[in-house]
Amino acid sequence: MTSKTIESLLAHNRAWADRRVAEDPQFFRRLSALQAPKFLWIGCSDSRVPANEITGTAPGEIFVHRNVANLVVHTDINLLSVLEYAVTQLKVEHVIVCGHYGCGGVLAAMRRTSFGVLNKWLRNIKDVYRLHEPALAQCEDEAARARLLVELNVREQVLNLAKTSILQKAWKYEHRPVLHGWVYGLEDGLLKPLIDMQPGHDLHPLYRYEDL
Ligand code: CO
What we know:
Helix content: 40-55%
Bound molecules: cobalt (II) ion
Mean pLDDT: 96
Strand order of the largest sheet: 2-1-3-4-5
Shape: globular
Number of strands: 5
Strand content: 15-25%
Order of helices and strands: HHEHEHEHHHHHEE
């Protein structure tokens, strides 16, 4: 990997903007007036999983939220603000939770090392582990267990989305968005769909609000 300088990032940006305008003179004018993405991406902060690049989406096509290990935590005002805005205002058709194999957050959650404030965040993944301990115990080694936990974590975060009143309201009144859980492979660059959840999905009754 080449080591880039901070100046080179700005130089690249100028060349990129020039190229865009050469291809399409109205590109930035059009985008600055309106954003109407159909997709919300909730992914890991990992630098190797860039949402736009791996999905072939251009600026304006995908609304992005990223955090360590792509978690949907119900006390996270940042995530909830992004979700509310994307679902209620932008009216996205799809919400994608994308995890990735080799996720440092997931691996850290499997260990007993203390990471300070990060412990509170990773505890959510430890809870996913505890919830699915029987399945994880059947894995033949640590690597297989880590891969399974990455997948189980994605499924759990999709479920966490469905538990929100934001999603349930949109499902009830506008029959959208569809939820998707994907895993990205750092080794092959491929996205693997794990789960799709359609509007009106049959949630456990305790999580289903009846007075929306
Ligand atoms: Co990660």
